Amino acid sequence: MLLDMSLVEPIKRTLNSKFKFRCHNDISCFTKCCSRTNILLTPYDILRMKNRLGISSGEFLKKYTYTHTDEKSSHPYAVLKVMDDNEGKCPFVTPEGCSIYEDRPTNCRYYPIGQGLMIRGSEKGPVNEEFYFFIRDPNCLGYQEDREWTIETWRIDQGADLYDEMNREWKEIQLRRDTPGQPKLDPKKQGMLYMVSYDIDGFRRFTFESKFPSLFDIDKEEVEKIKTDEIALMKFGFKYLKYILMLEETLKVKEEYKKKVV
Ligand code: SF4
Ligand code: SF4
Fold first, then answer.
1. Average pLDDT over the chain, rounded to whole?
2. pTM (two decimals)
3. Per the count of CB atoms within 10 A, which of 84, 99, 225, 240 is most buried?
4. Considering only CA atoms, which residue is closest to atom 5 of ligand 1?
């Protein structure tokens, strides 16, 4: 989420941190949090939402998102568009609640918790450290309810643990690119990062309707798998991103193409 920082409690929390919260359809603020949002979407969010709606990732991106380019890293991010009405409602909110509830994005699952990821130095070298924080919107009355959670039990209850697992490698790519010394991306790489991250159907076409698979030494079983399994294709995409962003030698170019591939 592109957060309103004035609502963020400036204390780092862990999975064991406790809080009281309950969100239900009899609460007077019900669905108030589904307006004027700036929800950053992840690759797995889009995969689930476009399948829920029965449309292609390209159609989903065009209809429901806009692109926000981060000034520092030059990364393009897909953000959920709100409706062009006075309330700036999410296109999926209804008086009964979220119409895509089972496939709602990661940020909606975590709310009122926010997540952060940072690199910490250790004796064994840099390690990734996840942390959490509370979003204290005075309009959200769920904090006044009596149900007790830890952040861990909340994220499991909301199904956010699966989403984290699916997006972990992608988030690490963002984090590694965000470290000092990483060059800004040229428009071609920005386009590739955007397509691989969010447009899974476009990435499938790029992979199978071009010379792409013949350029790299990719295991035959992996090629077969990514033809039919979208999640495997998404994860293969993360591998490809690490390669093109020069973070890791995750793919090997075939000898005969070495001179041709840039
Ligand atoms: S309690 Fe908070 S999260 Fe639940 S509907 Fe109200 S504003 Fe939204
Ligand atoms: S996707 Fe669902 S939960 Fe998230 S803001 Fe929209 S209506 Fe609310």
1. 91
2. 0.92
3. 240
4. 30
